[in-house]
């Protein structure tokens, strides 16, 4: 019976391709399903033989551990070089958007607090 190995929701294409390649290299039989037009299905990689699940999980876990380290190093390199802006830098890059968001938050909070204000001050 087929067994779910790896969900592909919000997974970058290069990561999904790496997982497919690793499973092919180890000779594990698998197939892939898509989420469908409305996203109601399960986008995933399924193992054909459920007896191979421990081996496949070990392969995927090892790959994800290596990928996490690589992605963290890449992020830190980009952050150190200034290519990824911090919070204050993003505010300075888009001040109108920031002020608009502040006004929207104040508006929603005022709508939420009006009933309480009216009961406390009739």
Question: What are its keywords?
Answer:
3-stranded antiparallel beta sheet, single chain, 61% helix, 4 helices, mainly alpha, 2 domains, transmembrane, DUF2007 domain-containing protein, 122 residues
Tell the overall outline: elongated
How much of the sequence lies in strands comes to 5-15%
Rg, alpha carbons: 24 Å
Q: Give me the number of helical elements.
A: 4
User: Quick one: how many beta strands?
Assistant: 3
Indicate the mean pLDDT.
Answer: 92
Description:
It comes from Methylophaga muralis. InterPro entries: DUF6164 (IPR046162). This is DUF2007 domain-containing protein. The chain has 4 helices and 3 strands, in the order E-H-E-E-H-H-H. The protein is mainly alpha-helical and 122 residues long. It has 2 domains: 82 residues; 36 residues. A 3-stranded antiparallel beta sheet has the order 1-3-2, covered by helices on one side. The termini are far apart.
